[in-house]
Design goal:
Length: 214
């Protein structure tokens, strides 16, 4: 029994180390993504307040997008998010935020079917192909950019750049940890089938729903 316990401890320790290293690599890939002139910037949605306005994480992404446009690095802004409930349309809220900061309406493309990273990638690539543009800037948190880049490249993007809010929050530790299995799943699914359909799964909501059902 003692030997089994020792092997179990070693296995847990090994998995933890591998997981930490993988998370560090994913974050490093995000912060080192090239920043260059793009035809379009894709801003990934995130949570809203109850009144339908962006919470800080989403607002920080939108501020990055505003700077990208104002400095001439991004010609258009593609805002992509989901509808989380009545009055909680992420993409519409993002559009309102950008308009209030002087971005012309004809420079904003709204996608309210971006329920997850792969869905956003497919919707944005469809738009890019239709308008014959190829250079895309991904705007998200640094820990998400590696998976977002993977999704865009696998569905057909040839030139992918990245931008992110230069701020760190404690919750980034959890988010970075979560990106490890998410990145692995995306890698395997899109390698086996580039036409894989988007699947939405939000770990924290799933965990909370389990406790709520008790």
């Amino acid at each position: 029994m003692r030997l089994i316990f020792r092997y179990l401890k070693f296995a847990v320790f090994t998995v933890a180390i591998v997981w930490i290293v993988a998370a560090a690599i994913i974050c490093l890939r995000g912060v080192t993504m090239r920043y260059d002139t793009a035809d379009i910037a894709v801003v990934f949605g995130n949570a809203l307040y109850g009144d339908g306005t962006p919470k800080p994480i989403l607002a920080s992404r939108l501020d990055v997008a505003v700077n990208c446009y104002q400095t001439g690095y991004c010609a258009k802004l593609f805002v992509s998010g989901s509808i989380d409930g009545p009055g909680l349309d992420e993409a519409a809220a993002m559009q309102t935020y950008l308009l209030a900061r002087g971005i012309p309406a004809d420079r904003i493309i709204v996608d309210n079917k971006g329920d997850n990273t792969l869905a956003t990638a497919r919707n944005a690539i469809d738009y890019m192909r239709e308008h014959q543009i190829s250079r895309v800037m991904l705007v998200s948190q640094y820990y998400h950019l590696a998976r977002a880049q993977l999704a865009f490249e696998r569905v057909g993007a040839s030139e992918v750049y990245g931008a992110f809010p230069h701020a760190f929050q404690i919750r980034d530790l959890y988010s970075s940890w979560r990106e490890v299995p998410a990145f692995a799943i995306y890698s395997v699914r899109l390698a086996l089938n580039p036409d894989s359909k988007p699947i939405s799964f939000r770990p924290m909501q799933f965990i909370l729903s389990i406790f709520a059902a008790q």
